Amino acid sequence: MKINQFAKTTPEIGIIKTELTQIGFPTTANSPIEMLKKLIQRAFWQVSGSNNQIQQLNQYLASPTQTLGNFLATNTAITAENFNLIALQLLGFQAEADFAISEASASAQKLNVSFHNHFETSDDVLINWYQLLNTHTKFGLTYLDQLAAQGYYAQNEISVNQPLFFNGKAQATFLTKDFLYETVYVQTDFDSDNDGFNDLIKVEVTRPTSDQPVPVAYTASPYDQGVNDSFGDRLTHAVDVPLTEKPAGTISLQSSASLRTGKAQAPKSTTESTTETHTPKPGYTLNDYLLVRGFASVYAAGIGTIDSDGFQACGDDYQVASTIAVIEWLHGDRIAFTNRTDQIAIAASWCNQNISMTGRSYLGTLAIAAATTGVPGLKTIIPEAAISSWYDYYRENGLVVAPGGFQGEDADVLAAETFSKSLRPGDYLTSQKTFDQYLQQMQLDQDRETGSYNQFWEDRNYRKNLKNVTADVLLVHGLNDWNVKLRNPAEFWQGIQNLPISKKLILHQGQHVYINAFPSFDFSDIVNLWLSNKLYGVKNHVDQVLPDVIVQDNVDEDTWITPKNWLSDKVVTQSLNFDKSEFKNELPEASYQKYCQAAQLWKHHLYDLNNPELSEQRIASVSASLEHDLTINGEVELDLAIASDQNLGMLHAALVDLGDAKRLEVNPQILAPKGVHLGYRWYTDNLREFKLAKAETPFKMISQVHLNLQNRTSTQINESIVPNQFYQIHLKFQPTFYKLPAGRKLAVILYGTDFEMTNRGNQKIHYQINNHSAQLHIPTN
Amino acid sequence: MKINQFAKTTPEIGIIKTELTQIGFPTTANSPIEMLKKLIQRAFWQVSGSNNQIQQLNQYLASPTQTLGNFLATNTAITAENFNLIALQLLGFQAEADFAISEASASAQKLNVSFHNHFETSDDVLINWYQLLNTHTKFGLTYLDQLAAQGYYAQNEISVNQPLFFNGKAQATFLTKDFLYETVYVQTDFDSDNDGFNDLIKVEVTRPTSDQPVPVAYTASPYDQGVNDSFGDRLTHAVDVPLTEKPAGTISLQSSASLRTGKAQAPKSTTESTTETHTPKPGYTLNDYLLVRGFASVYAAGIGTIDSDGFQACGDDYQVASTIAVIEWLHGDRIAFTNRTDQIAIAASWCNQNISMTGRSYLGTLAIAAATTGVPGLKTIIPEAAISSWYDYYRENGLVVAPGGFQGEDADVLAAETFSKSLRPGDYLTSQKTFDQYLQQMQLDQDRETGSYNQFWEDRNYRKNLKNVTADVLLVHGLNDWNVKLRNPAEFWQGIQNLPISKKLILHQGQHVYINAFPSFDFSDIVNLWLSNKLYGVKNHVDQVLPDVIVQDNVDEDTWITPKNWLSDKVVTQSLNFDKSEFKNELPEASYQKYCQAAQLWKHHLYDLNNPELSEQRIASVSASLEHDLTINGEVELDLAIASDQNLGMLHAALVDLGDAKRLEVNPQILAPKGVHLGYRWYTDNLREFKLAKAETPFKMISQVHLNLQNRTSTQINESIVPNQFYQIHLKFQPTFYKLPAGRKLAVILYGTDFEMTNRGNQKIHYQINNHSAQLHIPTN
Lengths: 781, 781
Fold this sequence. Notes:
The structure is a homodimer. Chain A is of the alpha+beta class. Chain A has 3 domains: about 15-160, no CATH class; about 175-245 and about 260-460 and about 470-560, Alpha/Beta hydrolase fold, catalytic domain (Rossmann fold, 3-Layer(aba) Sandwich); about 570-670 and about 690-780, Galactose-binding domain-like (Jelly Rolls), CATH 2.60.120.260. Helix content of chain A is about 25%, strand content about 25%. Chain A is built from 22 helices and 34 strands. In chain A, strands 11-5-6-10-7-13-14-17-18-19-20 form an 11-stranded mixed β-sheet, with helices on both faces. In chain A, β17, α18 (about 485-495) and β18 (about 505-510) form a beta-alpha-beta unit. The interface between A and B is large, with 56 and 56 residues.
């Protein structure tokens, strides 16, 4: 176990004393030991009676042979061993399991929670105590957060329902029993469902009671009002279909069409109170963490969802406009009503006009989309596992390429699933016909026939508007995310590099998951430090304090590093030497059927070069064992000359780490169910962490790429193929950050189709490659 | 999907009107349609404005072509199709996925939520509406519970913080923001750790604010203050050890020794207010469900846990006394203090002196233990997956037999794990030496050497005191629980049959799991009906309303049946015909090592009669395909003559269902994370259900039994074995309730050791059986 905290700072003693005083801790004493005693007594405010408190403190040790109560009553000096031992216990670590009682300082150092070793003055004690309050316990948040969750602020009546900042971060001083749950309907300027009226969008606000205006963590979640899985299932596309030849030609693009407008409802009156409430639904626990710390939590599902108007459109301009309409209301630039019919206007007067957006996947995607409009009031976005261009979600290099695990899904399927208005049969009675027509058009426009980049995808490419971004960006993505592939964050990250905004990047070792309850990494604190600055204006120097890039190491557990940047331009080129010069696409029918049912098995056989079942369909180039560690930082590129014996062809290339090793799991384990306490009488979260697998594995796929040979030049240009003619291609693997330790081998494996992601028609195609021309370009640190 | 509700009753119209009036629903109207309109409008109290309400109602359908708002505004008559269609939508079922819009009544019947089809009068509508309020939604609780969770009582100020009963069950009228969190220390009459003072027990009370005294759901959980896993791991016993010969003889037993007493603290003063609070920990969500309905939730971890005194003892008389001390305080018969040192006494004056006990496994075990003392105030227990005699947990028929999944665990291991005082190093500094000595004595007393029944187990056999039980019993167990095996509930159930108490039994298809959030079964309602009667004195006729025995079917999903009783005495006897007359114990070293590492694989190979790897170690008798369904109800018994070529021997017999079929999974799937709303602004639970596995399996173990051949007569009598001499044995399989459909085969498989549960020394032993004498006795319905 190792605690990594990037959002913890060490101010000078004057600030420490001021901040400790603000949260009700004493700062003066006649001796270091008296100082420590006063601080600890304060931390045990819940224990009634002085004899009782001594007995309680005697449950802890101050040295291997002395209990804490006795130590504080009789000792005259403090050693580093004393303090570290006390601290480790208060932080919830288990004696003789997580740390050694007789080696407290060394144990603390191993856990990465150590303290300075001066105890000559009361100030020395205060500095360490301040550090202790800011240090993470075993359970995912700081010791001060733990005290707050036990009722420290509420029971001692400190800053109740007022913003309070400690070490630059907002504290959990807001009472959950005073939270307000309000619902309003924001009126947009567009009519996406063509009913003649501008669409209304339902917005659910949960906010603390506070004397002063509060900022907002806004999550735009199309899933929030329900998901129609069976509708999506019905539309899911067949993927056991052949690749077909595309006519040669270049696809032309236009600028986006303007939005259709409808009739607006004029306000008949205004009010200061909402009349509708809402019942909390399971949401992003980060928002719940923020709520109790003075950030309102705002959810909107947007057009096409229950109690709102309009159609779901998988990220088009209407959906983006629907997303930012909520921000415009929060910022005072747009009208909202208390209900859908009575035209009573209500302002977000409780909001300090500073808005952030949070969320993962589609939710983070809409945060990116919103930021690219430059909407006023949106001060920062924290997109996690987010799409920056939908082409990079459903397509790749001229091919239909599914998000991992969702074969046959496409933009229309997602639109149907999130069209939650269809879950209300009365609503659907009127909208079904037009929405079905709308879906049919979408099915044409998304063009699964060619997989090329066209106007549909151009309309859903937020990167074309990056110049508009004024919101600061805290970007988060999993390096093992094969659902939203890493081209999405990489191109976004590169595209904002020169904008005059603050930008930070966190890459973790998960797949498509949240990371806000990990003991090894203080993500919630980072967000808190970030938003305290961006939304509350706290001068905590977060832009300097946070490293620009934090990457979780893929070899060691609980290790987070800070490389200078992601996507290095320092490149090493290697010649490849494939084991054969030809491979074929088709499989025997039995194998084909088997792999269609079990894509995981196919992947396992593909990467296991000893497995003979795919030997005719695969060629591989394997490096010698690495003499030194190699860190891949960015997009690996592949040069290759390839020929197909047909007038079409597709290629799946994988970059694979070979060698027996225990590797990190890509899904977190639950270490303690409900172990993270987000606030006083408030929600909990499961404490979780990526752990090393118990067993060794022989390989791991590092990155991959897919190509339609007709799009060897561009996704927008379809070119002919002359059978058996060699074409030089230049492939860019999905970007990554991967440490390959010395002793491992690096393999490039080529294959025709991808059972997990591409269409798989089991076509008879024969490929040849030219070994002499094959080169790999590896970006390194 | 199918809803089964056993706690729903249909009173006569007068009572229906009274109850509807009490919860604020109208009961008079000029016509059936007006009646329905008024009721629905009330259910949509949250929707502001009349135009808005019509628009909201128009999201629903009243017929395939008419929306609900329009229907209520214009129609003059109601049909059963109308009502069922409306009801299914309000219950959260999805149109065209869970039900057919054009076949609403038939769909409702399939879902088992149908209504009567008269709508001539307003009363007809009221009866159906009453039924609807009491019907389960798709999300695990009733429609009225859903309204309550949305704020129906709180926002309409109906019976807030007062007990309210509807259809015999307590309603969620208590505000969570007004809950009180109190901690007290109950003083016992004994001194388990021999420190000279009577042990204090920490008790954590969470209770609603209420004008009148409230009853209690009390959970005695030794795990509640933390678990020292590493301590337990350290003590876990080696199981790859040989069986040894026991000297012949009979073990004598005495009555229990009396408890050691220490010095009592006299109260110095009394108070009405506690001074210590507590932070909610994850507990049993059933208690959280009850809390908001007017039942205080009380947790105590008992002796040997953090902030209490004493030692952990795995269920001995001290632990039982510690468990009931809390009840005695709640009932007004015992003193408690506000803290551990200041001797300020506090009474549970808020308690109506009616106490129930809830909990699973060890928690339920202590409920059984408490009930067998006859302690006043304990009105009922709801033990789930509970132990009734610890011999039946850690031993079987003269053998050490581990709880499934916990090889090497024993009473000492569990005592160490739950001795959470060891997690507080200061506390442990003083107790370590005496507790270690105590554990050493326990290790001798539990006697892993012989596995026979002795004084240690007699002291932990609660069944010897069944005559004392005065509490009503609602007993719950999983038919696939191989952790707490079914002899525990079976012998308890049989033992209380003739007591003058009310007793009910629920057997589900899970292993060691809770069942309180299943859409198919109204377990929470059953408990609510039960406790409303037992603790609040509501005359809801629960003893008559609830079937005596409810069993979940093992063949069909979502099916719960009500056999007359469990453990039938109608027996069918079959002759067996084993495929061989001999088998040996030892395996080749490689196989042995493999199976030691992977007991699940061993089990799979054992029951797969086509697998040759265990063919010399296994003999089997397989029936012909069954011509008719066979229901096994109770203990299957096996008569057999067997000989060992050594002076010792052990037998593992399994009863196996053979035949390809999709079988129910024994762990529930999560259908909707946080999908069950337990109350207004209160906790949620994961909605879950046992589902049929997606793939067919070739077999399933129905029951099993283990025997030390030296204990062929009794667990208390060790008899010699003459090598190669045949002994007649009579084995009782663990009790079960199992439906074997026609077409399946029933197999009896004999083996030496059990890699999952017994010691496994890979000894060279050769067994012979006499086929002529082999008979199986099957209890059937």
